[in-house]
């Protein structure tokens, strides 16, 4: 019996309307108090290609991706063979038995529901016949998995509130599938959902929506963006929440401006222009956009203009796998642009952190007067996650960092835009239009002195560059600290991870503990690395670095920035475009240890998908 | 000239404007361009226009890209903030700045390389968005800082200094700007200050995207006999269709003009631009006719100058986007950040 612990996968045709029915299914389980992790595995296509929706249900909260499908809802003849093959022995295959399908496995149980036939008999409009097949299989699942039918019906009513005419036929379609399952199969099966309180006060939301909402609460007023998967929904969420929260009641006017730019260069240019002028502005993109934005990132670094950038990483290089996930822009973001440049990176590992890092990202960017890049990824950005509710502190002013107003300018002597007055490497800035006589300066990407005046004196330029390094040292004390997990007895071995890998780590540690392998863990949350990061590495003989790219980019960054002997950092890698699994981490770590102390040998994971 | 620091003192009897400022107060540091560069005359025209318009310098933002022209914002309005961005990307930075605070005047200075080549895309989109700014191109048909390569505005018939032939069509920025919906389009000549200053004043008083293409000869690389962007060629081939006079709103128009030859257009700040039609057939409010006129006269190697197109009926960017009148950079947490109770409602909706 698998109660509240299984993986179900839906195989659909892109554009057939399955997405909303599948989301309904996942949300219903969440509403029953059981933690879920739905994942869209979609093609770079609008209509016709195979698409999958995978839902892991686990009331212990182990919500990382897991291989092995306990139940497959196979609705797509194109991917039939691979879908049937993916089911674990003893698992279930639910399919549309209107059509005769060859099932070449005798170690799985099959549940045929004639969805097409049922819907064709019940509905007359062709589009409805198509759409309601999806709702009907959700109806069948409510019976097969023993789901709370009232919850599902309630969600339909909620979803179509205001479009009440749609409620009855949807519930009709649900019943169609449910009644067929109840009549012809022994319901419930031995995998099922039981009402639980494991969700607690958590919420279900995508990382990109959380990031967009975070920008509203951070006081962002300008967003400029260029459409690119998987970052588009950051700007869309910002717009949606702004329409709810930022319309002037008396005039109906917007307290925000969102520009769909002509390309990524313009998008970040606008964000930089707005930040320079005292508004909080951001942009969101993915790998190819990062490449295009690099020149502007160098300008913002050198001219010390704040800007917040969300990088929702996808599979690279080049156009790569636009609809798959990776963490492969670490190096290109940490050192984006020509010349000596470094950027502050934040690594959220769940939607709550996407929200928090939007707010902290603006504070850091304003505080340090430099670009901050939030390094999310497709898995986090575009999938719903079971995550802690959002929190803010009321009554806090926006922290805009060292900005001088007219009064302060009157009190000081000569204003020097790039003078290190406080010894922390962070100078003072002014917004245009502040004072009739003082505080104006020329923002430039050319070499400049402490008064923002162009100079070709190499010594002066070197002095400015050294101060920028010093500012980066200050950043180490301001960025979010790493989070630690300790093995019961403490261990001589450690494991470093970051971003979306975090969701798989507790489960991987359990699997390893069963094999008598105990590791201390550290979750990186930011670059530059603070002293605690170095200390963790130095206090362990061997440290595994888990990341979702081919070249162990975070490991390289650690070696480079902290002066670590590379032999001590063992890469654990996954780059097949799917989120890393706990089993993969545990197996790769085990394999490494089995090979003795040769830490230089790379543990390679990540094989091509299907 | 570049080694001479600009002295700070000035004659005590220099004329002052309504703000009590002299022209010197609108200047910047000493130009480092070549002696005789057309761009310095454009700088002088900007200084004169701002002085005559009584603009407070700190309420102006100077935006530029990269190139000789983009250096010039250092040479005027030293009390204004300036932003010398990256090559060809000034329009996006200006757009963002404008959205943050539309109460400043934005003067963007660019060149033909910066605008017609590397920045062509951004230029086009700033025009069609109707960003509220004055965008000046100091057009000399050549890349000066890299020593005299052809630019995309170099005319097909114009040869290089060493006789190199230009095989490619030139890009006419005026026609492009009119076509893409700029609401104020003019062409001037750096050698004709009397024409250029009123154009600048009118452009600075206009709400929306005001574009001035200024033919500004490069004395070092493109002022030779075969060039169509030389002082001599432009003087010989200039065809001025409209003379524009700028009339502040408080002034009465007293001058006499022949009937039918004068067109008064009221700008957004109630000032007026008085167009003296030097070619009676020219209608600066007719977009299609203006384009046709440009093409016909270009074919005759004529450089058409004056206020070429004016439309005071279009909204600027912020109005188009329905953004609140207050500058966005003036809003604080109270106006921008909802409270925890609101956030808790959002949380509840996600359960």
Describe the structure.
- The complex is a heterodimer of chains A (610) and B (351).
- With 610 residues, chain A is α/β, with parallel strands linked by helices.
- Chain A folds into four domains: 2-192, Pyruvate-ferredoxin Oxidoreductase, domain 3 (3-Layer(aba) Sandwich), CATH 3.40.920; 205-387, Thiamin diphosphate (ThDP)-binding fold, Pyr/PP domains (Rossmann fold, 3-Layer(aba) Sandwich), CATH 3.40.50; 406-478, no CATH class; 483-604, Rossmann fold, CATH 3.40.50.920.
- Chain A is built from 19 helices and 24 strands.
- Chain A starts with a strand and ends in a 6-residue tail after the last strand.
- Chain B is an alpha/beta fold.
- Helix content of chain B is 30%, strand content 19%.
- Chain B contains twelve helices and 13 strands.
- The relative contact order of chain B is 0.12.
- Chains A and B meet through strand 9, helix 7, strand 10, strand 11 and helix 9 of A and strand 2, helix 3, helix 5, helix 11 and helix 12 of B.
């Amino acid at each position: 019996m698998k109660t509240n612990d299984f993986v179900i996968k839906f195989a659909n045709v892109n554009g057939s309307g399955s997405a909303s029915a599948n989301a309904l299914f996942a949300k219903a389980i969440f509403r029953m108090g059981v933690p879920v992790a739905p994942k869209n595995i979609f093609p770079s296509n609008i209509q016709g290609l195979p698409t999958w929706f995978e839902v892991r249900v686990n009331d212990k909260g182990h919500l990382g991706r897991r291989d092995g499908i306990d139940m497959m809802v196979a609705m797509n003849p194109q991917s039939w063979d691979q879908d049937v093959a993916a089911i674990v022995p003893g698992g279930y295959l639910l399919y549309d038995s209107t059509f005769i399908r060859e099932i070449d496995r005798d170690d799985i149980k099959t549940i045929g529901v004639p969805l097409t036939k049922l819907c064709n008999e019940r509905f007359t409009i062709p589009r409805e016949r198509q759409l309601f097949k999806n709702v009907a299989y959700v109806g069948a699942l409510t019976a097969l998995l023993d789901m709370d039918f009232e919850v599902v019906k309630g969600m339909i009513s909620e979803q179509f509130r205001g479009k009440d005419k749609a409620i009855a036929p949807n519930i009709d379609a649900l019943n169609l599938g449910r009644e067929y399952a109840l009549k012809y199969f022994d319901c419930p099966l031995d995998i099922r959902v039981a009402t639980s309180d494991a969700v607690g006060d958590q919420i279900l939301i995508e990382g990109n929506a959380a990031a967009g909402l975070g920008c509203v609460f951070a006081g962002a007023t300008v967003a400029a963006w260029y459409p690119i998967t998987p970052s588009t929904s950051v700007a869309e969420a910002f717009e949606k929440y702004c329409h709810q929260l930022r319309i002037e009641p008396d005039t109906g006017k917007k307290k925000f401006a969102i520009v769909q730019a002509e390309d990524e260069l313009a998008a970040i240019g606008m964000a930089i222009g707005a930040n320079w002028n005292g508004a909080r502005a951001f942009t969101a993109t993915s790998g190819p956009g990062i490449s295009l934005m690099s020149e502007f990132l160098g300008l913002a670094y050198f001219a010390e203009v704040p800007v917040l950038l969300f990088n929702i990483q996808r599979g690279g290089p080049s156009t790569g796998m636009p609809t798959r996930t990776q963490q492969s822009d670490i190096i290109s973001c940490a050192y984006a642009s020509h010349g000596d440049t470094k950027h502050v990176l934040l690594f959220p590992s769940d939607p709550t952190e996407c929200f928090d890092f939007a707010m902290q990202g603006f504070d850091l960017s304003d505080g340090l007067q430099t670009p901050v890049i939030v390094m999310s990824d497709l898995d986090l950005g575009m999938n719903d996650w079971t995550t802690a509710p959002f929190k803010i502190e009321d009554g806090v002013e926006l922290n805009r960092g060292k900005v001088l107003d007219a009064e302060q300018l009157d009190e000081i002597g000569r204003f020097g835009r790039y003078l290190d007055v406080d010894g922390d490497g962070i100078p003072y800035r002014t917004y245009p239009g502040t004072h009739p006589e003082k505080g104006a300066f020329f923002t430039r990407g050319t070499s400049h002195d402490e008064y923002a005046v162009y100079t070709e004196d190499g010594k002066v330029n070197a002095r400015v560059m050294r101060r920028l390094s010093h500012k980066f040292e200050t950043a180490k004390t301001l960025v979010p600290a790493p989070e630690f997990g300790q093995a019961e007895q403490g261990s001589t071995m450690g494991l470093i991870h970051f971003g979306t890998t975090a969701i798989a780590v507790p489960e991987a540690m359990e699997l390893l503990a069963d094999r008598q392998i105990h590791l201390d863990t550290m979750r990186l949350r930011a670059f530059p690395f603070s002293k605690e990061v170095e200390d963790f590495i130095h206090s362990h003989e061997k440290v595994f670095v888990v990341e979702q790219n081919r070249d162990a980019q975070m490991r390289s960054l650690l070696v480079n920035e902290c002066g670590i002997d590379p032999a001590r950092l063992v890469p654990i890698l996954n780059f097949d475009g799917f989120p890393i699994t706990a089993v993969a981490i545990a197996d790769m770590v085990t394999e490494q240890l089995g090979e003795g102390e040769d830490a230089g040998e790379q543990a390679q994971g990540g094989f091509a998908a299907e | 000239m570049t080694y001479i620091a600009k002295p700070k003192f000035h004659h005590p009897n220099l004329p002052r404007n309504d703000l009590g400022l002299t022209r010197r107060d609108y200047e910047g540091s000493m130009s480092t361009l070549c002696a005789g560069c057309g761009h310095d005359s454009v700088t002088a025209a900007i200084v004169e226009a701002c002085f005559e318009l009584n603009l407070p310098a700190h309420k102006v933002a100077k935006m530029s890209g990269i190139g000789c022209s983009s250096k010039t914002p250092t040479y005027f309005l030293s009390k204004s903030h300036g932003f010398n961005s990256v090559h060809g990307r000034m329009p996006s930075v200006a757009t963002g700045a404008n959205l943050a605070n539309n109460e400043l005047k934005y003067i963007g200075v660019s060149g033909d390389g910066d605008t017609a080549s590397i920045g062509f895309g951004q230029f086009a989109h700033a025009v069609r968005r109707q960003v509220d700014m004055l965008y000046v191109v100091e057009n000399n048909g050549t890349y000066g800082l890299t020593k005299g390569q052809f630019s995309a505005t170099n005319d097909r018939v114009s040869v290089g200094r060493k006789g190199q032939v230009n095989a490619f069509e030139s890009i006419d920025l005026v026609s492009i700007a009119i076509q893409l919906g700029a609401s104020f389009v003019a062409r001037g000549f750096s050698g004709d200050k009397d024409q250029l200053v009123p154009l600048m004043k009118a452009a600075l008083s206009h709400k929306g995207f005001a574009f001035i293409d200024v033919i500004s000869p490069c004395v070092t690389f493109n002022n030779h006999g075969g060039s169509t962007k030389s002082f001599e060629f432009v003087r010989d081939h200039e065809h001025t269709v409209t003379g524009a006079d700028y009339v502040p709103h408080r002034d009465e128009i007293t001058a006499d003009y022949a009937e039918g030859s004068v067109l008064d257009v009221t700008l957004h700040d109630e000032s007026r631009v008085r167009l003296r039609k030097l070619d009676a057939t020219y209608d600066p409010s007719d977009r299609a006719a203006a384009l046709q006129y440009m093409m016909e006269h270009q074919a005759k190697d004529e450089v058409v100058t004056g206020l070429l197109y004016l439309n005071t009926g279009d909204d600027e960017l912020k109005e188009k986007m329905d953004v609140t009148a207050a500058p966005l950079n003036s809003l604080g947490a109270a106006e921008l950040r909802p409270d925890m109770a609101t956030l808790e409602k959002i949380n509840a909706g996600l359960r």
